[in-house]
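Q: My collaborator sent me two sequences in one message, no labels, and asked for predicted structures for both. Can we handle them in order? The first one she listed is below.
A: Yes, handling them in the order given. First sequence, followed by its structure tokens:
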Amino acid sequence: MLSDIEIAQAAEMRPIGEIAAALGITEEELEPYGRYKAKVTESLITRTANDPDGKLILVTAINPTPAGEGKTTVSVGLGQAMAKIGKKAVLALREPSLGPVFGIKGGAAGGGYSQVIPMEDINLHFTGDIHAITAANNLLCALLDNHIQQGNELHIDTRRILFKRCMDMNDRALRHIVVGMGGRANGVPREDGFQITVASEVMAILCLASDLDDLKRRLGSILVAYDMDGKPVFARDLHAEGAMTALLKDALKPNLVQTLEHTPVLMHGGPFANIAHGCNSVRATKLALKLGDYCVTEAGFGSDLGAEKFLDIKCRFAGLKPSCVVLVATVRALKYNGGMDRAELTMPDINALKHGIINLRTHIENLFKYHVPVVVAINRFHTDSDEELQYIADYCKAMGVETSVCEIFAKGGAGGTDLAQKVCETIEMCQENTFAPLYPDEMSIAQKVNTIAKEIYRADGVKFLPAAAKALAEIEAMGFGSLPVCIAKTQYSLSDDPKALGKPENFTITVRDVRLSAGAGFVVVLTGDIMTMPGLPKKPAAFGIDCDNEGNIKGLF
């Protein structure tokens, strides 16, 4: 059996100009990065601004096992399957982070015969967007420390600096550091730290910005620190936004690539959904809606994280209304949520499935609260028994939800045509779009957190630790109480405890910190022991990645 990278390397890619031409993109509206990837220009976005929108399809999932459940693979396969049934679809996906690529999951551009290519480029440096975000983020940090070194005219309190450096790699040793050591010439000593680039506010800003002017405004609104009198200091006070925008001007342009079956993909932005808002860029999604009859996009991890943030943050800001949500489930993840040991998930066990399917039910009920139709995609693994698959289908039918067993990993688009047809039929039956976010702007931040905790996580309530309560009061005093909330939480459970599987009961969500992302336009709420800089596992995926003397990469997945 071929590995993902072997399948990708054996594929016949079409020149990116051909993919663009099929979408009506002219040569002048394309900026090639080699033969098989390109950026699209601002002129294309302007030209298509008044074109009608296609239908928006969001792909999300139940709570996964640590191995992941193939949500990106299903997204890619669905896009390919749309073409198989004669529909014009454009995918709008996130860029992979190097952290997971070299950490636990390996490559992150789909799998099997439902992949985005050139797979090696996408998984590594791609068009340099994430590197540009890292540079812009760290430029602000350098300007901040230089300002303090050069006399600290703004009277910044070095004990209350909020903005951190970043890098796109899992490195736990950088979570908490001290900078400025070595004497006066090397800066002012202070505590600092790193977060992974995809969890940074700059990444969120890039994904939510509408154009360069909006990008610059948002960058200037980043809350950097407080001064000695407790007043906020923003990036614009350090005159940082112009130079940061210069570093990001090309990164703001969406990237165009293709799937194994030449379905067009706008791949742009890559925030994590457990510690950020987890969606690709607004610009890429909106452009995909203009270029295709259907836009297939995804939100990271389970629907309690990625979908909630897509629906409550991205759709709120961008005025988007999904026509259908595809909820990815697997037999193995449901058995895992039913308490089955990870090492035994390949063994048929209908009882474990019956215990774990409450997790699927909860995700379906949660999505209904947004008034969107749902189709469940069962991503089939070869170890799944017919009895197990039928049990899921019957269970969903009793809830009034269509299901489709997908074999897109093994068969590509051909393995997802049933799913594509059911999605199209569901959209046709639900022409009146009544989508609405879960909470209104005017709710207090604490009320918003409580609403999500009770309605989505099914918690009894929320406990704000003293530090979080103090930060929350400061944020509201500055006038930012109307912002939506971005809750950072484990992806493995509906609760903030990764070991509480299925549908946990009798628990509260513990908030240990609240941080203002004024540039992004939301408030980050940190729960449990979630961290914004992951670490590598004992045997990281990097151990299996290599490059031969001809430059051929191996082991990405």
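Q: And the one she listed second?
A: Here it is, processed independently of the first:
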Amino acid sequence: MSNRFFDASVAPASLPEADVRGPWAYLWWLVRIRPWPLVLSGVLGAVWMVPLALIPLVIGRAIDEAGQGSGQAGLYLWSLFALVLGIVQALAGAGLIQAAVGAEAHALSHTHRLLMRHVVRLGATLGGKARSGDVAASAAADVESIGNAFEVVGRTIGAVFAAVLVAVALTATSPVLGLAVLIGVPAAVLGIGPLLRPLQERDEAQREQMGIATSQAGDIVAGLRILRGIGGEAGFAERFRRTSQEVRRAGESAGRMEAWLQAAGVFLPGLVTVGIVWFGARLAVQGTITAGELVAFYGASAFLTLPVSTATEAAETLSLAKVAAGRVCTLLRLTPETTQPAHPEPLPPGPLSLVDAHTGIAAEAGQLTVVVAPADRTGNLADRLTRPGRSGDGAPAVLLGGVPLDRVDLAELRSRVLRSGPADTLFSGTVREELTAEAARSPRDLDVALFTADADDVVEALPAGLDTRLDEGGRALSGGQRQRLVLARALLAAPDVLVLEDPTSSVDAHTEARVVERVAAARAGRTTIVFSDSPLWCGVADREVRLDAGHVPGSPDRSAGVPS
């Protein structure tokens, strides 16, 4: 993709900056910016869970009413109460699903938007700061883990509230049994705690391996054509198999710990239930409690397995969410190399000059300048000319239209300067959408850009012409075809300053000659800088600058370039 500059002013105003000091700070920030879905989810979770807790008590009371010979009225009354509780639970459950999904969607959408906004902010610098696999895994697995944590909150709040209610009700009936519940249930939940830390560590290891595997898969797909050409498919395939096995082993390790956690979530509350039922049966035999109260105790103790299992699920989900939020925070803490100046200076209208006294590159306004430099240094040189803050220690700033580059408003810089190089790619979609994505141009402008880049024959050879859908990266095209379409996209944007890196390196000499002549004619009156050592480009240049290794930033020799 053509290297444009992110305009901070176009960020969604409704999305504030996140708190990325740590995973818990980030999760709490998500709660703060929109608390109502979670509040509603918690209230409905309590309304949904309380009837489940009360129904055993109501049934026990109904049994006692029937056994005391008070007639059918009491039995019917308590049965009707149980029916009402069932209806309330059904309605609250339906609302809980909607509220929980809303809370989950809030966390998912906001995290997705933050990641995408920050990726745009980082722009071309992202590749040097994070693996592509980490970004892809965060946008998929990490975001989903955070959303799952928000989905479980309502049920967890309801489970805690209902467990407290049951404990109070049982204590009112039998203080000894109530005390057993108040001690046993928290003990069962706390018994799960020692398993959470190992689970987090194993999830971290699995997540790290997934990021590595995703990066390798992307590299293989992107370079498949080259791998076939040099016979490297087998080597990369073996490397990816080894990485896949590492992912599998890390997943198995995390899965074993999750299995232990799930087993503890069943075993520990089961022990509490068995103990309460055994103790309650002894009290019933002694006549301390009635048969109905024994049924109520059994039902209530059986119900308590639900809050404990819900708490287990919440602990596991929050553990995964903490790992995911930590990864998201790591990405969000990456800083772009270009920042908006505090007091930007406007650029003059019309054609712009681009002068770098540090290297001797000077492009006059409205002229075509060719820079001949070592091939391994052209990327650094193009960075200096197009990115603010790339001057280096003590080096004079690059001047764009007489204005230091780091004082230019990023929105204006983005609209008037464009850099196109070998790292640019084609995204999936139709050719028409790909070429016109950044600028609304007329069909004639599109035809002119294709002609100038000598790419009209590329479009004609496609099955549906401009409406042909491209795979990501344009993998079905040859290197020369992709390069010409990328050049056409850059020309169609029609920036005041266009910086091209080896724009014809993948085409034959005849095609290059046509492209050179047409670009020189089409860009007449606009500033164009071409990094190339091709004699064809040098032949049409208004100005030629030759740099050796000593003139490149970062090398010992800081002398100026030699224009000709």
